[in-house]
Structure formats: C-alpha cells, structure tokens
Design goal:
InterPro entries: SIS_dom, SIS_dom_sf, SIS_PGI/PMI_1. With 168 residues, this protein is of the alpha/beta class. The protein contains five helices and six strands; from the N terminus they run E-E-H-E-E-H-E-H-E-H-H. The protein has a single domain, classed as Rossmann fold (3-Layer(aba) Sandwich). It is globular and about 50 Å long. It starts with a strand and ends with a helix.
Length: 168
C-alpha cells in the first residue's frame, strides 16, 4: 500500500502530547498505534472518539484527524477545533471533505487508497498514522519499520485466514 504524505505549512516537531481523532475502524487503528508505541513514546497519546478535543490541546499538541471516508462529522469537528486551538494538525483519509480541507488549510495530510470497507482497512490506517508520526519525528525510522513489518505480517495473516475460511 502506498501512503503518500503531502507536506503542509505545519512543521512543529517538539510536542507535549498527541491526540488522534477518529471513529470506528479509524479509531481502532489509533488504539493500535497507542498500544504499539506505548513503550517508546515519551509524551502522552490520547485517542478521541467523539466530537470534542480534550481541553489540554494547544499549539504544543499534534492532532491527527483520521476518517476513512473523509466525511465523518466527529472527525471534521475535531479537525476544526484543532485549527482554532492552533495545534499542529495532520489529516489522513482516502479523500472526502477532510482531504479537501487539509489542502485548503495547507495542513500536512496522508492520503491512503480507497476501495475497502473501513474496518477492513485498519492495517492501512495503522501504517498511515505511523507514517505521519514518523514525518513529525515523534517516532524514529526503526520503530516505524518494526511496527510496519508487524502490520504487514498481520495483513498477510488476515488475508490467508479470510481466503482459507472463504473456501470452507
């Protein structure tokens, strides 16, 4: 899977905290990132599954808004709040309003390929969020590679299991 990062004007690198906003399968990928990076991150990472960002979000926060379709209203609400709070903002989606807003607002974004249902794209969302964390220097290349390789292995196992059980 190719996940292209489109760099915006937001280049801050020294964060006090991270918030990943998403719903459904997008939030699942964020939860996986939180668990997989827990031993390496030296700053708090919170996953928001709703309309509102936490009160602590500020210019020293990296907010990643994730929506498979790009049109999830809760994620778009968090995106807007992050802009208003002048947080360092990034977006990830297959397209939709989220990518259009990121382009218009000159915000860094990752666009992942469309085609699969959101819950079936969890591994791709996981890789996209990790790529954004790597882009902002929150995680290093070694950690990205380790988790990406694990995600690739998991995707292969899921594919094998699905193919095997489809024949049963």
């Amino acid at each position: 899977m190719k996940c292209q990062i489109h760099e915006g004007a937001n280049q801050r690198r020294d964060f006090k905290n991270i918030v990943i906003a998403g719903m459904g399968g997008s939030a699942l990928a964020a939860d996986m990132v939180r668990v997989l990076t827990a031993g390496w991150l030296h700053i708090p990472l919170e996953v928001v599954k709703g309309y509102d960002l936490p009160g602590f979000v500020s210019e020293e926060t990296l907010v990643i808004a994730v929506s498979h379709s790009g049109n999830t209203e809760e994620t778009l609400s968090c995106y807007q709040q992050a802009l208003e709070k002048k947080a360092c903002l990034a977006a990830m989606s297959t397209g939709g309003a989220l990518i259009e807003r990121a382009k218009n607002d000159n915000v860094t974004y990752a666009q992942v390929p469309a085609g699969a249902q959101p819950r079936m794209s969890t591994v791709y969302h996981l890789r996209g969020v990790l790529k954004l964390l790597q882009h902002f220097w929150v995680i290093d290349n070694d950690l990205y590679d380790q988790v990406k390789n694990s995600a690739d292995w998991l995707a292969g196992e899921i594919s094998n299991w699905t193919a095997k059980n489809a024949r049963s």
